[in-house]
Please model this.
Amino acid sequence: MSSEPVILVVDDEAQIRRLLELILQSNGFAARFAETGNEGVVKTASERPELVILDLGLPDMDGLEVLKKIREWSSVPILILSVQSSENDIVSCLDSGADDYLTKPFRTGELLARMKTAMRHRRALQEEAVFVFGDLQVDLSARVVKKNNEVVKLTATEYSLLTLFVRNAGRVLTHKYILEQIWGPTFAEEAQYTRVYVGLLRKKIENDPANPKIILTEAGIGYRLSTGG
Model:
């Protein structure tokens, strides 16, 4: 049996399947395919892939429905790949459990980077892990944040927000998800909270808060903690 990580592609477009097969196989992955949503759900169970690449426009059901069905029983990383690029579509997928998204056409390098980040994120993050980005260090075990080896003083809310980003490094977090995690479900629609507190946090951890490199804005959707440090 092959030891290559299995990637399941759920897409009804033959040209995209051929392209992804070439990309995946040339980068050390074993490609499996499903052309319908129902087949995608079944193969997610039978193939036990390391990651699912899911198109939203499928012939038998909406990709969002496929995502929700898989999330009822599996935490497999799911990367949305679709021509649909509206903010509502993207937010709905992320809020329903997708790990990330890319719109077609896509760049090979970005696809592979998003895949690796999603797979890495699903592996349990050890509490003693230290997140490092340039001169910033976040020690989750010691609950200490340092910049240039000097302790950064954060409020309880700022620290909670930063650790939420660290535990989801590389993953897009929607405004709604952040609000529910930090302030609770009754604040799910108060997007100004995230903007204000992300702004405060950036002033303390970014070298240039006006041009952030650590906490990146996903316009109209939310934020992503960069893993490129």
In short: Residues 207 and 213 are 8 Å apart (CA to CA). The two ends are 36 Å apart (CA to CA). The domain at 6-122 is CATH 3.40.50.2300 (Rossmann fold). The longest strand covers residues 6-10.
